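Weekly modeling sync, notes
Attendees: S.R. (lead), two postdocs, one rotation student

Agenda item 3: backlog of single-chain predictions. S.R. asked that every request posted to the team notebook include the full sequence so nobody has to chase files. The rotation student volunteered to paste the first one in as an example of the format we agreed on. Action items at the bottom.

Example entry:
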Amino acid sequence: MIDQEHSLDIYIPKSLIGIVDVIVQHQSSNSANLLCLPNAKVEVFFFLEGSKLNHFHINSSVSNFLPNDSNNFAVAFSSQTHPIKAKFKKLNAISAVMNPIAAKAIMDTPAWTIKDLHMEPTMFKSLNQIQDSLNTLPTFKQRALFVEKFIYKRLLGSKYLNETLEKIKSLDTLYADINSLFHETQLNFSRYHYSRSHFNRICKDWLGVSYNEYLIHKKFRKAMYTISHSNKSLTEIAHDLDFYDQAHFTRTFKRFAGINPNAYRKSNKGIVPEMILLK
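Predicted structure, as returned to the notebook:
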């Protein structure tokens, strides 16, 4: 996927279906100021040679992430309810976009502990070796396969492996673009019949939020894709997605995006619909 300023290579890791949606490499030789709408995923970013960031944060009161100002080059984060703000002069980054269960399965931490936060993934050993390999491998496919193998090895060694495999048995496709390979899945926990308190605990650990909150967010994502890829009116979209009315739709969308649906429709979007190009 290419526009005048940015390119995005996409790879679907077949060995990690249900865990990782896509592995992508985002490159830009030009500066950009982005607002990335929350996707309720867990992501691991590896910033490669050439990246120069001004800032990268979900909550600026917590911290910014500036790999070009430090020895850090990797960041893990989960944008559940707040957009990510990123400004860079140049960007060369490869990332794994994972369902929230990856927090426990891959990072050995409950999903709620990184909700709307970012951190250096110190639980990954040999980060310098990972950096060297990603910078040395000559093609995107080789880099993507390296990341896939790395995550797969982490999964096989996880004490939560069996629980993770059970959790991904019910997987739904939220969005798919056959032309670009870009796609997004969502987990289906509706088949569980536990007590309310136990079910809420499971969802908090594996999804980062309550199941109801998770489903509301997925309605927001469906609305985002529909606004971006169709000419349907906002009233039609609100009806199709079973919002109570358009006012309820507008409040829900703004709660996650920080802007209302009409402002989003008019916005200058990046390569994928969740990226809004700011001035």
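Discussion: group reviewed the output briefly. The first helix runs from residue 102 to 105.
Action items: rotation student to repeat for the remaining queue; S.R. to check formatting next week.
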